[in-house]
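Batch manifest, entry 17 of 40.
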Amino acid sequence: MVEVEVRPGGIFVGGHPIPEAVPPSLLHDLLGLPDRMVDPAPPAPFGHRNNLIHVYDDLGLYFHEHHWTRLAMDLVLVYSPEEEGHSFTPCRAFSGHLTLLGYLVPSGAAVSQFVRECPIPLEEYLSGRWRSADERFPIGMDSQGAKLRSGRRSARRRVVSIDLSWPHDPWLRA
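Output type: structure tokens
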């Protein structure tokens, strides 16, 4: 089980601090090798490279590797894989623990509960998409209502995934 914590000083994975974007090998050391690596976009032009996605199906998470710096830019914890629906979505839901400034995020949380209880202020910038209002803790959250028999979606939204980002400036690496 993976323990992820956001607190002053950065993101901690398994108790190890990761204050900024790091080489994927560091995350591989902590999480093991990914189950698969996905290049979800059309092939990049000759001499270029797309962002790679390192997917951990059994852990219910993935991270993006920047195409140029080749550093891990974020860690995405997927709580509802059936609702996220990307080609790189893990097969299983995140089964570890995520703690945000002391708040243990409950599995299957309703958006209203998460936004109310989370100590990091969140703002909705698109319907169902939220981001932290506090730049010191860059997190994002996607939500969606459950699919109903009618094919429509429920108005009661649940947390689908939480994205934890690391400071990353690709222009610093020349």
